[in-house]
Design goal:
- The chain is an alpha+beta fold and 404 residues long.
- Helix 9 packs across helix 14.
- It contains 15 helices and eleven strands.
């Protein structure tokens, strides 16, 4: 295994990791999103439309090319970056790079109306899930009047007013005004790969990191939102806080807090206390969702409607406990082991590795950020867990309830 980190002529930082004796090459290229979309849904449509035809291929012809060479290619939009990635057989790497370059430089966005209608029809289906509805309302309330609050409901409200020109303008802005991060992982020799990269990705507009225009989200008060949905037999409750994110001192501590409280399933505190002991929950868990400027720490439960208040009280009891009583050394060590195990799982394939490298690269961190994070995780103490919980789990929270 060899690893090299360098820059292309257009200032794009890249990592090339050679994993010998693997049959497939993986590539991930990320572009930073430096300003809020003009309307909710513009970036989602942009990502979908990239694969719907170019100057030299119709959408059907493009799909046929990917299928013929067994290239798994996708484009995706996230809040802080836009991503294109592929996996292909080693012998088809040159073809995959050629098609990626075609998509990035020659997309026509011609099937705009078709994709807009598809997205418009898909969202209500997703929001038919009461859990998704509760999360959507939570997101809008947590990030009220902020780009991060562009939930599915927000997209549905604006989608009819989005124009093809707005999508093309958004794409051109991102391509020309973004930090770009590239990761290539596979068995081919670097000498076989980099001339192809230089001749395609190396000709994209310069990578730049000086034009970030999204403001820091702020939560100044306690908020609550209730959504009524017919024909439910459960209530779905989300409670969360705005907390530190990547790169901040509390980041590794919050990862462990999440594992201890509710992200590791049967052994987590929330599962043990609220489901096993009190019989309140069908499902109960916590999650720690991270973005460039902020993160939110959420607790979720699905329960009988009559148990809404007692479930919220159960949330409060578990939060109070983690704020006042030191976690045991065994519980802390188990959480650390859980995280290290998850890291191993997330690095199983060449594509997993490429996506992880490119993600942290585009966010402004070292390509080896996960390795340093593992070392930081190992040093977290019970006292740090306590102090972090006291700092983060304050009265400024958001509660979302979806019920019959």
């Amino acid at each position: 295994m060899t690893k090299e980190i360098s820059k292309l002529n257009n200032n794009i930082e890249y990592i090339y990791k050679q994993n010998a004796n693997t049959p497939r090459m993986a590539l991930c290229l990320n572009f930073s999103v430096n300003k809020a979309e003009i309307k909710a849904g513009v970036y989602s449509l942009m990502a979908r439309l990239l694969l719907q035809g170019t100057k030299n291929y119709s959408s059907e012809q493009l799909a046929n090319e990917f299928e013929k060479f067994a290239i798994d290619f996708s484009s995706e939009s996230f809040l802080n970056y836009f991503r294109v990635k592929f996996v292909c057989l080693n012998e088809d790497f040159a073809k995959a790079i050629e098609l990626m370059n075609e998509v990035l430089t020659n997309s026509t966005f011609e099937e705009f109306e078709k994709e807009r209608l598809k997205l418009k029809n898909e969202i209500p289906v997703e929001l038919d899930s009461p859990r998704a509805l509760a999360m959507d309302a939570y997101c809008r309330k947590m990030f009220e009047n902020h780009y991060y609050g562009n939930s599915m409901t927000a997209v549905l409200e604006s989608i009819d007013s989005i124009t093809k020109e707005e999508v093309i303008d958004a794409y051109n802005y991102i391509i020309n005004n973004s930090k770009k991060s590239l990761a290539i992982v596979g068995a081919l020799e670097k000498s076989e790969v980099m001339p192809l990269i230089e001749d395609t990705i190396g000709r994209l507009p310069q990578s730049t990191d000086n034009n970030f225009m999204i403001e820091q989200p702020i939560l100044n008060e306690k908020k609550e939102v209730k959504t009524i949905k017919d024909d439910l037999n459960q209530a779905h409750i989300v409670k969360g806080w705005l907390v530190p994110t990547y790169g901040e001192d509390e980041y590794p501590i919050l990862i462990l807090l999440n594992i201890i409280l509710g992200s590791c399933g049967l052994s987590s505190r929330l599962f043990t206390e609220l489901r096993d002991k009190k019989g309140l929950a069908y499902v109960v868990r916590s999650s720690y969702e991270t973005f460039k400027l902020a993160a939110n720490f959420m607790i979720y439960i699905a329960t009988e409607p009559k148990n809404i208040e007692v479930s919220l009280k159960g949330f409060d009891e578990e939060i109070e406990k983690i704020k006042t009583v030191l976690v045991s050394e065994k519980e802390l060590q188990d959480a650390k082991n859980n995280f290290i195990g998850r890291c191993a799982f997330s690095e199983e394939t060449n594509l997993h590795q490429a996506c992880q490298y490119a993600k942290y690269g585009v966010l402004g961190f070292d390509f080896n950020y996960v390795e340093s994070l593992k070392e930081r995780i190992k040093t977290v103490t019970a006292e740090q867990i306590l102090a972090c919980a006291q700092k983060c789990f304050d009265d400024k929270s958001v509660i979302s309830i979806t019920k019959p």
